[in-house]
Structure formats: C-alpha cells, structure tokens
Amino acid sequence: FAEYYYCLILRVKLVVTVDNGISCEKEISALAEAGIDTIVTDHHESKGPVPAACAIVHAKLSPAYPWKELAGVAVAYKLASAVTGSDLDDLLDLVMIGTIADLMPLDDENQAIVNLGLRQMKNTKNPGLKKLMQYSHLDQLNETAIAFKIAPKINSSGRLGKARDAVRLLTSDDEDEVSRLIEEVEASHTLRKDLTEDSYLACERLVDPTKSVQVLAARGLHEGIIGICAQKIAEKSQKTTVVINVEDGVGKGSMRASGEDNVLSLLDGVSDLLVKYGGHSQAAGLTILEANLPELKRRLGGAGGAGGKPTLDYDMQVKLSSVSLPTVKRLEKYSFFTAAFLFSDLLITAKQTMANKHAKFVVTDGTKSVEAI
C-alpha cells in the first residue's frame, strides 16, 4: 500500500497498472474509496472476483479478442495506441523485447510483434537501445540475441531494485545520461549474475529428488533472483520448483512449472497456507508465514508430477546435411526469426568445456559435421 499513500499525497486521480492488478481487488477498492480511478492492464490469470476497476484490458477476459497470449507489455501498448490514436510503430522494438523477456509463446500475434519489432530495432533511433546493442556485442539481431543478451540486462536492474535506471536508459534523449546509465545497467547485470550463481548453488543443495515438487526455502537469498533460480532448478531437475527467501518470519517465493504442471492450480490447493499468491500457469509468486513452510513442503512435495518428459516443440524436422548457411540467412531475411528446426540422430564426435559452464560439440549425421554450443 506504499503506492496507495503516494497516490493520496500527490492527489492522483487515475492509476493505470501495467502487467499487474488483476488479483488486486482490495487495493483497487481502497483506491476507489479514496476517489482514485483505476484502469487495469494485465495478462496474468484471474483468481477470484475481478477488481471493480473503471476498465480492465486483458486479452483472456475479452471474449471477442482472438489471441489470448499477449504479454503484459503488449496489452499496455495496445491501450497506449488506442488512447493516442496512433499505431506507435516506433515502440514495437520495446514491445518485442518485453514479449520475448516474458517467455510468451511466439505464435500468431506474438510472432508478428517479434518480427516487426526486430525490423524496427535494426533502425531504432532510441539512444538507450543503441547503447544496449553496442555493449552486448551482437553477432546478429534475432530472438536468441534478445532473449540471452538484451532482455537479461534490462531485467537485472529491476531485479536489484534499480528499475528506474533501465527505464531512464530507454526513455532518455540525453547522450551523456545514456552513457552514464548504460554503465549502471551493465554493473547491475554483472552483480545479478554473481548473486544468481551463489543462490543457485545454495538452492541446488536443498533439492530432494524424492519429491515431485521442489520447495526450497533459505535465508539470505536475493528476492530479485529467486525466480531465475526456480527456473534453473526446474529445468535441471525436471520438477516444478518454488524458491523461497525467508526473512523476519515471512517467506517470499517464486514458482516455475515443469512439463504439464499448472503452478496456479497447485497453489490453489494450498491457498489456506499462503498470505497471497498470483501469476499464471507457468510462473507465480507467493508470500507465506515461515511457520507454514513445513506444511507447504509436505503438501506440495507430493503434489504435481504431471510434468513427465519435457515437450519439444519445433516447426520442421530437417536433415543436417541438407541445410546450408545461405539457407539459414534466407530464412532470416523472410522473417522466420523464431522458427525451430529439429536435427535428430546426430553423433557427437568431439566435445570440450568452455568457461566451465558451456559444452561445445562437433556433431555429424554421417555426411556432414558442424559445431554446436
């Protein structure tokens, strides 16, 4: 409610949420009682009564809207476009980054957003975005570059409580300010990576392979990176995972799904133990009293397990020896930025470790050999 009192002090009359609010019935009612209107733009799952806001812009709650999997950034973009009466094409690069960073399915309208956004980004006039690309040393500009180099740097500032740095970087026209802010963003990204590594190792030691859902609670974890840790543990263990930082008798956690598990459904089953929770089927956040953690571990530990083997989605199976680099470049030229191709029945003929983290292979289909990371 800190933002609530902030609104009262500034005599705010309207609050527009971005990527949140659909589960904030009490907060929005309190704003209404204070004479403050609210417009909710969100994409998270609605659980319980929908807030009594002036308007709710949410693809999944609109029967008439055909594409339900918009990221929160795209929902906000559509509201901004409607209010201004403009297509706001110059902002599509930012909408694209947000869509990829939010791990949304890259199909249908999201695929169009990514293709148009990447095209816009190549010609961007945004000084901060130019600096981000320059400091990221991109070999090529595609969905992978955004997911692994650009988006994490923007997210790192927010995870460390310095979201204002990233916002100012992407909105400033002052070259001196942009040059200063890119250094701040880079420093936050380096610190976030170090914190993530330390926390991940601490969480990995708590994994219990006999439990179908991993509930990992510890003190001293940074709240901004527990979601990353949960994702990494879920991917490695192939088990739905929740990582919880405990402080002053309260645990704040982040949960990530594995396979077909629905984390919101799992949390619905233990809602009596939680102070609050929310999110969507693949990712959620929660708050719990420390005293309830043993019961949460007991009940969640035996739940879930619907995951099974991870699903591999791809667009086409291709024989390795039939693909050439010019073909790949032509595909990119025609905007197939996010297509996934499966090469199967490959033999590893050589391998090496890079930076103690990555594996480099030489693989062959019997006719052609290529390097793979």
Poorly predicted regions? none
Helix content: 40-55%
User: Main sheet, how many strands, which sense, barrel?
Assistant: 5 strands, mixed
* Sequence of strands across the biggest β-sheet: 4-5-6-8-7
How many extended strands? 13
Structural class: alpha/beta
Per DSSP, the total helix count is 13
State the order of secondary-structure elements, H for helix, E for strand.
HEHEEHHHHHHHEHEEHEEHEHEEEE
Percent strand:
15-25%
**Alpha-carbon Rg, integer:** 22 Å
Distance from N terminus to C terminus (CA atoms, Å) equals 47 Å
Q: Average pLDDT, to the nearest integer? A: 90
Shape field:
globular
Question: Strands, helices and their partners?
Answer:
Elements: H1 2-9, E1 14-16, H2 25-33, E2 37-41, E3 55-57, H3 72-84, H4 92-101, H5 108-122, H6 127-136, H7 143-159, H8 163-171, H9 175-204, E4 213-219, H10 226-237, E5 240-247, E6 250-256, H11 263-268, E7 274-279, E8 283-289, H12 293-301, E9 316-317, H13 325-333, E10 341-342, E11 347-354, E12 358-364, E13 369-372
Helix pairs in contact: 3-4, 4-5, 4-7, 6-9, 7-8, 7-9, 8-9, 9-10
